[in-house]
Amino acid sequence: MPTSGDVVDLELGVPEGSEAGFRHPAVLVTAQRILDADPSVIHVVPVTSTIRRFHSEVVLEPDASNGLAVVSAAQCQHIGAVSRQRLVGVRGNVGPALLAQVRETIAVLLDLP
Q1: Which of 15, 30, 50, 112 is the most buried (most CB within 10 A)?
Q2: 44-83: per-residue pLDDT in tens?
Q3: Are residues 31 and 54 in contact, defined by beta-carbon separation less than 8 angstroms?
């Protein structure tokens, strides 16, 4: 069962425009209480190794716990809902502090309190 904050691999298919596509890593941001209910749709933020330093992105340093091989960025501006069937693997987990930072960035983007 996936956990909030997991760095997952998704099979996203052919991308349109600037969206993520093909097999792509992402941070799972769905609340754990929702994941515990085994939803058919999960919420993710794509991860890229192209660091742009946008305010809408959170830099992720590679380490043994997150499973990333290079410095990457969680692209909070591209939050999306995908079928759980697109999840093909779990690399690791970003941990509570970085997950909170990703969620705070999403809240700013969506003008949530």
Answers
A1: 30
A2: 999 999 999 899 999 999 999 999 999 999 999 999 999 9
A3: no
